[in-house]
Amino acid sequence: MDNVVFLAVLFAAACHAGWNVLIKIGLTPLRTATLISLGAGAVSLILLPFTGLPAAASWPWLIASVILHLFYFAGLIESYRVGDLGQVYPIARGAAPLMTAVCTALWIGEKQSVTGWAGIAVLIAGVFMLSARGGQGMKHLDLHAIGFAFFTAVMICGYSVVDGIGGRLSHDPTAYSLWLFLGIAIVMVPYALIREGRPALLVMQSHWRRGLAGGVMQLISYGIAIWAMTRAPIALVAALRETSVLFGVLLAALLLKEPLRPTRIAAALLIVGGLALMRLP
Predict the structure, then answer these.
(1) pTM score, whole prediction
(2) What are the extents of the domains in the chain?
(3) Kindly report the CA angle at 65 between 172 and 116, in degrees rounded to 5?
(4) Interatomic CA distance for residues 113 and 124, integer angstroms
(5) Other CB atoms closer than 10 Å to residue 237's CB: what's the count?
(6) On the CB side of 49, how many CA atoms lie within 13 Å of its CA?
């Protein structure tokens, strides 16, 4: 992975952390996810005339990704409904990159160096430690929540691999990303209506500015990731995206004045060490 791609994915991870901070607006997880999806879809619709269509070979992968994203949001929302964030988040975000690395190695033959595998493992360990908040959220394990968290991780792995392949076949990862986010917005609206009814959409109207801002950052974040997966191993990009957890902690410390406990400092050092290993040949 060259320096430009490496730094671009780190920037994407920072954007990912940014929109996650921005969406803490008091709505239900489903309404929040739908609001952000609508924001990203609206921006995509405006930009699509400037990009056109991705190559036809990528369309089956794009459609599959839209479906996987719908199941991802459904699993994530349900896991947050029945479980504690300290249980759900480290499993969903920490397990997914390892699953992705194994899938890309077995399915599409992407090979990683020893230092690459070590970097992924160390980075994931840091994500687990950082997300679990010192282990406080893992004292009482809820098997129902953990099941949904692993389902979410499988969906993250699935859409990462699918979009890596689809982006490469598209010959235009920007067009692929825009159509993807438009598709996600289209399926999220009826899903929200089925789950919570028309009032859910009415409540979102007063938060449309944050939804639009969050959608822009979401589009930039994952759009860069799809572009990066056309130029670097999918597994490395997927692992690098999880540094968003570290950026989230830094934003919380700077903006919300949350203390940096020793556990979080140690986790941050693990993530930085994993990044260093991934940069070695």
Answers:
(1) 0.85
(2) 3-278
(3) 75
(4) 17
(5) 28
(6) 2
Classified as helix, coil or strand, 245 is helix
Give alpha helix (H) positions in the chain: 3-22, 29-47, 59-82, 85-107, 114-131, 143-170, 173-196, 198-204, 208-229, 234-241, 244-255, 262-278
Q: How far is residue 266 CA from its own chain's centroid?
A: 23
In angstroms, the CA 271 to CA 163 distance is: 25
Q: 245: how many CB neighbours lie within 10 A of its CB?
A: 27
Helix (H, G, I), strand (E, B) or coil at 190: helix
171 CB-near residues (< 8 Å, 6+ apart): 54, 55, 58
Of the pLDDT bands very low, low, confident and very high (cuts 50, 70, 90), residue 137 is very low
Counting Cβ atoms within 10 Å, is residue 208 exposed (0-12), middle (13-18) or buried (19+)? Answer: middle
* DSSP characters over 68-102: HHHHHHHHHHHHHHHS-HHHHHHHHHHHHHHHHHH
Asked if residue 134 has pLDDT above 50, the reply is no
Q: What is the CA radius of gyration of the chain?
A: 18
Mean of the pLDDT values across residues 248-262?
68
How far is residue 119's CA from residue 237's CA, in Å, rounded to a whole number? 12
